[in-house]
Amino acid sequence: MSSRSLLQVSTNRAQEANARAGQDREGLVSGLTGAAGGRPYRWAYRVNMSEATTPEESPDFDAMTRDIAEVPAVEVIVTVAVNLMSAAAVKLGLTEDGDEHKDLDEARKLVHALAGLMDASATEISSFHAAPLRDGLKSLQLAFREASVVADEPGQGPGEKYTGPVYG
Questions:
Q1: Euclidean distance between the first and final Cα of the chain, in Å?
Q2: In Å, how far from its chain's centre is CA 122?
Q3: How confident is the model at residue 54 (pLDDT cuts 50, 70, 90)?
Q4: What pTM did the predictor assign?
Q5: How far is the C-alpha of 13 from the C-alpha of 28, rounded, in Å?
Q6: Helices 127-147 and 73-91: crossing angle, nearest 10°?
Q7: Which of 111, 65, 78, 66 is CA-nearest to residue 92?
């Protein structure tokens, strides 16, 4: 099966995501990207649909898909890093909803995963891409330290195994 046939847009998922989030100008693009242990796994990211105001004016999602074989590795790495950052920010309570989604245990896992990705990909992505990601990681680590009731020892915070101790 070609990689193009594995990448399909789920408009139902986009509509469900919009209904859950109360958003009418964003959609969720998702696709089947491979198999882990014989089971398929999915990816998803939001796309801006600012020009679409009604379902009849929705963009052609099929035209918005890209063959995964054409996506450069750096773009995939940066996209994953940005998704980890966004999820960590939500779990740290740094969004408009604040404490509604705050979960420091989940945030620790996400920040740690981001730090691991950054450490592993440091030689693979240029400093043009890496510098803002490192800054974002440090900001999340500092935000975690501020949000924690009991502070971790220096070097023991999320991701500090990879980055070393983070000080404000």
A1: 50
A2: 18
A3: low
A4: 0.63
A5: 6
A6: 10
A7: 111
